[in-house]
Amino acid sequence: MTRHLLKNPDLFREAALIDGQWITETPHGHSELRNPATGEVLARLPRCKEEETTRAIVAADKAFRAWRQTTAKHRSQVLNRWWSLIVENKEDLATLITLEEGKPLSEARGEIDYAAGFVQWFAEESKRVRGDVIPAPRETQRIVTLKQPIGVCAAITPWNFPAAMITRKAGPALAAGCAMVVKPASQTPLTALALGELALRAGIPPGIFNVITGGDTRAIGGVLTSHPLVRKVTFTGSTEVGRVLLQQSASTIKKCSMELGGNAPCIVFDDADIDTAVEGILVAKFRNTGQSCIAANRVMVQAGIYDALAARLAERVGQLKVGNGLEPGVQIGPMIDAGAVSKVEEHVDNAVAGGARLLTGGRRHALGGCFYEPTVLADVAPGMAVAVQETFGPVMPLVRFERDEDAIAMANDTEFGLASYLFSKDAARIWRAAEALESGMVGINTGLISNELAPFGGIKQSGLGREGSHYGIDEFLELKYLCWDGLHPSFA
Fold this sequence. Notes:
six-stranded mixed sheet, 2 domains, seven-stranded mixed sheet
C-alpha cells in the first residue's frame, strides 16, 4: 500500500543500500516497520548485522579513494543534482516521513526543505575548502596547510527528523570528499533509503552513500565505532547512547561529533511581547509533537505576566488539532511508539501529584494508540521530572520566577546545554541573558532557530562539534601542515 501513495513508487525501497546495490535479503531475516498513527505494517526490511556493516565500510573505503581525487567543482555539481532531485520529489519524501514517523504532512514538507538546504549549502561550501600559507621562521622555508577529507564516515541518525539529520551529515561529508555509511533509526529507514535512491540517480558513485537497515543497532554500531577504516563517527541521539559510542570509538581514536540530548529552557521576561512569545513558544514546544532535541522543555515565565501568558497558552494549545499526519489540518501527530507515550504519562502524573495544575490536556487522546493530548501544566516546580528530564513529548510545563538571575540559575541547572530561548524587548537584558545561558544556541524572540547557515550543536553533555554553516564541513576534514625547506631567498 505504501508504494501506491507515492508519485514515484521507485522511491519506496525495502532493501539496504550497499555499494550501489539494493540488498533485499540477509541471513538474519527481516523486521517489520509500522505506521505510528495506524499501527499498520508499512514495510519489511532486511536485518543487517556485523557482516553487512563491514561490507558497506569496505565498499565505502574503496569508493572514497576515487571520490577524494575528484575536483571540488565536480562534487559540487553532483551534490547540486542530488539537491534538485530532493526538491523535485518533495511530496513523496514528505509522505514517507509522515507514514513512518507520524509528523503532520505540512511539517514533513518543511523538513524536506530543511534537509535539501544542507545539500545545496554544502554543494557550494565544497568549492570553498582551502588551506593557508603561514610566514615561516626561516627565509628558505614556507609553511603550508592543507585540508583533506578524513575518509570513511559513519552516521547514526535518529527517527525524529529522518531526512534532515542525514543530509546535515552527508552533505558536508560528501562535499569534503568523504564516503559515508548511514545507520538510520530502525523506526524511520524509508526516508533514508529514498534519499539513497536519489543519490544514485544524481550520480553519486556506488559506495559513497550506503544505508544499513535493521534494528540491531548495538551490533551495527559496534562495527562502525571499532572498524579501523572508519575515521569519523557522527551521531544524533540521546546522551546515554552518545557516551557509549564515544567509549567504543576511543579504541581506534576516531574523530567524533555528537549532537545529544537537551533540556531547553525558554525564559519569558515580563517586558516580552505576549503575542510574539505565544507564537514562538508554540513552535519551540509542539513542533513534531514535542519530539525534538531543541524543544522548549521548560517554560519559565516572570511573575508579572505569568497568569496572562498561561491562560493564552492553554487556550491555543487546547485548539491544536490532533490526528493522522496525512489528514488535512492536523497539527499534532502521534508519538513514535507506546514507550514514548508512557514516559509522557509518567511525567504528567508525577507533576500533578506534586502540586502542578493541568490547564489543558493531560491524558491519552481519544484516538488511542500513540496519541497524547497536547498539555499545559502550571505551577511546575523546578525539581519535578517534567522539568529535570527531557520529556520529548507534547507537554509544556510552566515555571514561575521573580528575578532575572533566578531564571538564569534555573535554566543552567542541568547537565545539558543544547538550546535555550528567551523573549524580551530590552536589548541590555537580552545580551546579559544570552551570554549567561549555558547552551550552544539561543533563540531570541523566536522558536525557530534551525537552518543550514547556522552552526547547530551544544555544550556540556549535549554534545561535541557543530553541524551546518561554514563550520560544518571542517568536521569532515583533516588539517595537514607542510614544512617546505630548501627554497632560495627571494630576489633582491
